[in-house]
Amino acid sequence: MPIVREAIRAIRITLVLWLLTAIIYPLFILLIAQVPFLQEKANGSIIYNFKDEPIGSALIGQQFRDERYFHGRPSTVRYSQGKQARPTGISGASNLAPSNPELLKRIVEQANQLKDENIQPLPDLIYTSGSGLDPHISIKAAREQLDRVARARSVREDEIRPLLEKYTDKRFLGIFGEPGVNVLRLNYALDLQELNRRQNQ
Fold first, then answer.
1. Which residues contact 79 (CB under 8 A, 6 or more apart)?
2. Strand locations in 14-161, DSSP E?
3. Rounded-to-integer distance, Cα 62 and Cα 74, Å
């Protein structure tokens, strides 16, 4: 019967497409992603410390409260990290209107706190990002914190500046976006620098 033949043909086509798109293609992409120069990015750009323990992803920000560290952008979800965070895996902005008193209060508090630390309240230090997970701050925002971090670590600013340059991500393809300092990479490099200095004393 033609209807039965067509039904069998449709089932065969569905199975072939399912095999191609649900099994063969994902496995192929998985294998390609494990090529050495792609593996780190494909596995989440995880950063490991000297004990080979994961300390975070270079793609997702973290909260740094200690004066010895550069602070990242504020986050409405607090990077889904720690007891004060929202449930793990959630990201996004607060979606509060500019006229909302709650938003104004938070921004004024953040700006006053920065002024108390003699830091200019730049936009990326008082406003949250759209995703709530931004791992970068502007070069200017990092330079504003340089004096505080140097004093807290009892080092000269000149000792930190090379690290600041090293962990600044340039524009994509040289034209898209703005340069930004990866806060987690920079802070971990500062810890390594301090560890090396202690071992050499």
1. 60, 61, 62, 63, 85, 132, 133
2. 46-48, 54-57, 136-137
3. 9
Nearest to 128 by CA among 145, 106, 113: 106
38 in helix, strand or coil? helix
Question: Measured between alpha carbons, how far is 5 from 121 in angstroms, rounded to an integer?
Answer: 71
Entry pTM? 0.75
Q: Which residue has the tokens 């390609």?
A: 32
- Specify the pLDDT at position 188: 92
CA of 3: how far to CAs of 8, 11, 14, 15, 72, in Å? 9, 12, 16, 18, 64
pLDDT of 84 = 61
Residue 166 pairs in a beta bridge with none
